[in-house]
Structures are given as structure tokens and as C-alpha cells.
Write a structure and sequence with these properties.
The protein is an alpha/beta fold. The protein contains 10 helices and 12 strands. The strands form 2 sheets. A 6-stranded parallel sheet has the order 2-1-3-4-5-11, sandwiched between helices. β9, α9 and β10 form a beta-alpha-beta unit. It is elongated, with a radius of gyration of 23 Å. The chain binds beta-D-fucofuranose.
Amino acid sequence: MKRSLLLTMALLLLGTMAFANGQAADDGKIVVGFAQIKEDSPWRTTETNSVQQEAERLGIELKLSVTDQAGQIAALRDFIAQGVDGILLAPQTRSGWDEVLQEAKDANIPVVLLDRGLDAPEHLWAAQISSDFAFEGRLAGEWVADRLQGNGKVVELFGDPAADPAILRSEGFMEIISQYPGIEVVESKTGEWSQDKGRQVVEAWLAAGVEFDLVYAHNDGMALGAIDALKAAGKKPGQEVLIISVDAIKAAFEAIERGEMNATVECSPLLGPMGFATLMAAMDGQAVDQYIITPDSLYDESNYKDHPTGGF
Ligand code: GYE
């Protein structure tokens, strides 16, 4: 009797310890939460797949949440309450993260940022794995200056004015374009990273009689929307109006092949392997680089066939 009571107590104590230790009384599997952004963008689906595939390959249990930023903050709190071992976060916008990141830090759960940066202090997150968005913007700017020979009207389809890659892609682009007084950005508006929204914005510009020689879109999805709008208005995208964007998804390469689009700056969504390698090192207490930058190149009509996978 006494012995079995002792045993029960010992088992209960062990169970509590295991829970407090973040293993959530599971079978010892590593558990990782991924707070992904809900967005109408094929790029993002490819990134989610990359994370899921790598979790599967490593035998890690992945808790996936796909929401807007308010939902992402709630998901992070949920992951913390469940005692996950680590967190991957694709922050929708730059601001609003300090409090929840502090909560993760207090719970000893490392957070690795995937594909976007944020403006919370660096000690609150372990690493950021992304492209260099200002560099992408500069690559686009140089291509535009060259193709327009220093003269022309540009419209800009902005990602999300509060999102890190959109802000930096615009800044990098303007850094180059501002050196060319003959190039004017006549309109700039958000297409919310979405093909459908991008189409609507360009339709409205065309309806209002805005004239432009080139569309610079912060992602391929919005560029494809611009192509839809131009075609519907009887214009020839890729010829009468040049189209350049960022991401290098397969559909953009197909549009270049059809002659409807001119260029796209690569931005890899295949961040699963590096994301988990970094997160697991951080979980292990190892020092990791705070910024891990994936290299990008520009693809246009002249070299798109050289891309190793024909787009993402
Ligand atoms: O370019 C875009 C997506 O954060 C780098 O977000 C990412 C961007 C990507 O919606 O297509």
C-alpha cells in the first residue's frame, strides 16, 4: 500500500517535471510551432511546404498556424503555453512583437524569424533567415534604369507598407532610381501581395488614365495581376509596358517565356532546412548568426532559362 502510494507520487512528480520542462508529456519528440502568415501568395505556400517537409524529414512534430498578425501573436502564446521546444515565426509586419517575444524568452523558447524581419530588440529573437530586401530593390532599380535608358514613368505595386520586405524593396529601388531624374514613380499603392488585389489596383490606375511605361511589383503575384489588368485593357504587358517584380516563382518564369513579363529578382522560399538547422542549434544553446541572408540574382528574358529549378 505504502509502496504503491510512493510510486504514484513519484510518477506524478515526474509527469509534472516533464510538463514543466516543455516536453508536454509527449513521447520525447521535439515539438516546434510555426506561425505563418495567411496570404494569397504561391510563394508562401512553397515556404510552408518547405518547412513541413523538413520537419517530417527530421521527425519533428510541427504545430502550424496560418493567420494574420493578431492570430500570429495568439498562436505564439498558445505555443508557449503548450511548452514547444522552439518557434519559427514569419512576422507579418515589423512592429508589435516585443511583448510576446519577451514571453517566449522568459519561457526559454528560442524564436527564429523566417523570411521577414521585425523591429523588436535583437536579444528577444535568435536569428533571422531571409533575403536582403534592399539589395533586391537595388537589383530591380538597376535593371529598370538600364531598360528605360534613364527615362520613363513607373508605377509601384507595394507589398504591405508595414511589412519589412516591402519597405526595404521600395527603399533599395528608390536609392537607385533617385539617381535618374528622367525616371518618375507616378503611382505607388499596396496590392497586399496578392494577384487579385494587384490586378484591381492597376485596373483603377488605367481607368483613371494614369500613363506608365513600367510596373515594379514587390512580388510576382501582384505582377501577374498587373499583367491581367493590362491585357484586359488591350495593352501588351512585357512590350508596351515592362513588368519587373520579385520572388522568381514558376508562374513568373512562364510569363517571361510567354513574353508578358520581363524580369524577376529571386527570393528563395525554401527556408525549411536552414530554419530548422538554426532553430535546433539555438535550442541546444549554441551561438547562431543573428542574420542569415540567402543570396539572390535577377532573372530576365536573357537568362531565365539558367535558373537551377525553373523558378520556385
Ligand atoms: O516576397 C512575398 C510574400 O516575406 C519575402 O512575402 C517574403 C515576401 C515574398 O508574400 O511573395
